[in-house]
């Protein structure tokens, strides 16, 4: 079995990944600075002797011995990545350099959690991996988008220059249990608001679209990508092509929670992408992967989770 490093392992996706890797009998080293993650996300794993946790910020060098690296460390919600935007860019760029340097020294295979945000506010719809994107370099989302774009560049240059085994995954909006209740992302916001009977906050007119993937599907795709043949680098889109407007999402959340919450409209944040939907042909072909959990089904599981953590 492999010794696997998961950076950002105490976060939403990272904690699910650690769990799945431990279930497959791997040794897992979780590295996190707890900026947006929490010990609560991983406390159920602490009894496992193959699980180890280290508080560490990936913008600083890290010397450990591992076989594989999943680089997930980075705040993902606009509210959090805009809180300290300089640190966000540093996390993506310096974090990538350090993890790539580590991968080079120990000859580990390394996967980067990139994002659909590399496509910016896209003019090509749905987005295939070949689309170069439309990102504002100087806007409030740029710290995240450009940081992730630069990390992709670093991954491909370490691959070309140092022959590293890299895998680049472009993750589209993912939701599920262990999203932080005050994370600020739309699915957690709407569910928490609905359960508390508070107004549901629609930004803009709510006509912008996103495609929502349930976390279990996403993690399955991530592990399949890591285990593809050495000559396959990606980038690969992983997401659910089911596309919904924010008004449709609000309507589904209200129906599934039975909430009496009303809708309120807030200004649309700057540079908010108008549409987003993955073309997953490549994932289907190379990973034999596609999502299996429909929006209503995934929302129900997420609502069940939030009922336990949110007090009305
Ligand atoms: P999250 O905020 O729950 O998790 C990120 C984790 O990284 C947290 O535990 C946080 O404390 C940690 N972290 C942040 N900066 C760090 C640093 N400098 N050093 C060490 N740890 C640090 O977010 P998530 O949804 O789990 O996202 C995980 C990864 O997937 C991120 O890289 C994100 O960009 C990417 N991604 C997620 C989505 C999504 O919809 N969830 C979409 C696209 C990409
Ligand atoms: N690095 C690390 N752990 C290691 C090896 C390297 O964190 O096990 C960091 C190191 O601090 C360096 C970065 O990764 O700044 C890039 O390493 P690389 O060997 O590619 O470049 P160099 O050391 O020449 O800058
Ligand atoms: N959004 C919304 N209400 C909220 C939070 C978000 O209408 O309470 C909108 C937001 O403007 C965006 C979409 O939902 O158009 C998805 O936002 P999120 O922050 O979840 O992800 P991202 O914009 O990074 O895709």
Summarize the structure.
The chain has 312 residues and is an alpha/beta fold. 38% of the residues lie in helices and 17% in strands. Bound molecules: nicotinamide-adenine-dinucleotide (NAD) and uridine-5'-diphosphate (UDP) (2 copies).
Brief descriptors of the model:
312 residues; alpha/beta; two-stranded parallel sheet; globular; binds nicotinamide-adenine-dinucleotide; binds uridine-5'-diphosphate
Biggest sheet statistics: 7 strands, parallel
* Span of the ends, CA to CA: 44 Å
User: What is the C-alpha radius of gyration, as a whole number of Å?
Assistant: 19 Å
- Can you give the mean pLDDT? 97
- Uncertain regions spanning at least 5 consecutive residues: none
Q: What strand line-up does the widest sheet have?
A: 3-2-1-4-5-6-11
Count of DSSP H/I helices = 10
Structural class: alpha/beta
Topology pattern, helix = H, strand = E? EHEHEEHHEHEEHEEEHEEHEHH
How does the overall form come out from the CA principal axes? globular
The distinct ligands, each listed once, are: nicotinamide-adenine-dinucleotide, uridine-5'-diphosphate
Q: Based on DSSP secondary structure assignment, what is the total number of beta strands? A: 13
Q: Residue share in helices?
A: 25-40%
What is the strand content?
A: 15-25%
Write the layout of secondary structure elements.
Layout: E1 3-7, H1 12-23, E2 27-32, H2 39-42, E3 51-55, E4 68-71, H3 78-81, H4 85-106, E5 109-115, H5 142-162, E6 166-171, E7 174-175, H6 186-196, E8 200-203, E9 209-211, E10 213-214, H7 215-226, E11 236-238, E12 243-245, H8 246-257, E13 263-266, H9 281-287, H10 295-309
Bound molecules: nicotinamide-adenine-dinucleotide (NAD) and uridine-5'-diphosphate (2 copies).
One uridine-5'-diphosphate binds next to helix 4.
